[in-house]
Write a structure and sequence with these properties.
The chain is of the alpha+beta class. 40% of the residues lie in helices and 16% in strands. Strands 1-2 form a two-stranded parallel ribbon. The chain is flat, with a radius of gyration of 16 Å.
């Protein structure tokens, strides 16, 4: 199960290195989030919207779905 081991190792590494800084960022925006965009993306695992938009915690909502499909509002009421 090398794939699962890679995931578990990544989680442990994240908790030891990145988590503390992210918690501080979450606390900073907790009471007043102000995202400025909604980013629609395919759910393809190769796509990393936060990385290629260089966004930070709270900058945008990310909606990931199969095929990056966005139905027109006229179809739903």
């Amino acid at each position: 199960m090398p794939g699962l081991n890679k995931v578990l190792d990544g989680i442990l590494r994240f908790r030891q290195t990145v988590r503390g800084d992210l918690v501080k960022q979450f606390e900073r925006i907790r009471d007043n989030p102000n995202p400025t965009a909604v980013f629609f993306s395919c759910m393809d695992s190769r796509m990393l919207p936060a990385r290629f938009t260089t966004s930070q915690v709270g900058d945008m909502f990310v909606v990931r779905n199969s095929g990056n499909m966005i139905p027109h509002a006229n179809n739903y009421g």
